[in-house]
Amino acid sequence: MNLRIILPIAAFFAAPLLSSAQPAYSPAPSAPPQVTAIEWFIDNDPGFGNGTPLSHTSAPDIASLTAAIPLTSISHGIHHIFIRSKDASGSWSLTAAGTFENLHPAYTPNSPAPPPITQLEIFFDNDPGFGNGTKQTVTAATDISNLTLTLGIDTLSKGPHQLFIRTPGSLTASAGFANDVPLPLTWLYAKGEIIDGQSHLSWATAEEHNTKNFEIEHSQDGHVYTTIGATPAAGNSAQPKDYAWIHTTPATGANYYRIKQVDLDNKFTYSSIIPLLYNPTLTQTTAVPNPFSSILTVVLATPADRSMLTIYNTAGVPLVKTRLPDGTRQQNLDLSALPAGVYFLQLQSGAHQETLRLVKKHL
Prior knowledge:
- The protein has no helices and 25 strands.
- The protein is mainly β.
- It has 4 domains: 2-102, Immunoglobulin-like; 117-143 and 154-179, no CATH class; 185-277, Immunoglobulin-like (Sandwich), CATH 2.60.40.10; 281-360, Immunoglobulin-like.
- The strands form 7 sheets. Strands 13, 14, 16, 17 and 18 form a 5-stranded antiparallel β-sheet that branches. Strands 3-2-5-6 form a 4-stranded antiparallel β-sheet, with no helix packed on it.
């Protein structure tokens, strides 16, 4: 990877002061000295003459000089570049300086493929330590996002538990569940979208037993929720039921919703989180939250049109790829199976392409 620079150089000349004895037109100033050497360095000054030289033709004006600075040996992150020149008299002067971020390209040709995953370890509630969980052999693959497992829970006590699944070196997934506790209903889905500046929420149940109502809860940070509305539940039903609710005043920025189902005994369960981003002045594709932990919401500045969304790791390997329905403005992605680290999201819509840098947080 190279950093291409164009040197902006301004020359200043001081003309002698005019006196009453001088003619109205002073003699032309002497020509500026020739630039005989140029060197560059990044972050730390190695001393005059010890920087990396730039080849050039000796001239007094180097304003149009261009150069490619190699960055392959420079670490990721923010850096400062300095360029200085020396004139024919041997005097050095700082010519240009700038700040840049070295990300390294998201697409690296001939990058080695990640090793396939052949084994998982599973544990409930308490971490027994790396390598001490229950081993689960799986078909060798680099992508296990669609893996299905059947786990025995007969030895677990009744009540709530937490399941953890780990691949070598990283936590891959976790989920909470209740062992043998009857639920008042079965959720089919919970989703939402921004339409005309309002949050349109919808959810459905497969069946309900002794349900009383649904409470709609809202949060701007995904942690602290407040109840903003409620709607009656079916009570008892063996048929699928659809529900809808509109939040007319979403906050500008991130909005998180969840549906709380309350039964006749005041026991309750929650739907999955519904993240929505409301930005009436959005001009480019964005993703929230970033950094993220599991669910990532991608919001398009314009409706999808033959749009393909792909998630790459830093080695340029595609990990997630999905075609967006034409006309959609928002897509929720479950990336809980990805290990913590840096990723790149690419949105391709015809000839238009956007790339976003993502960070997955440690759980």
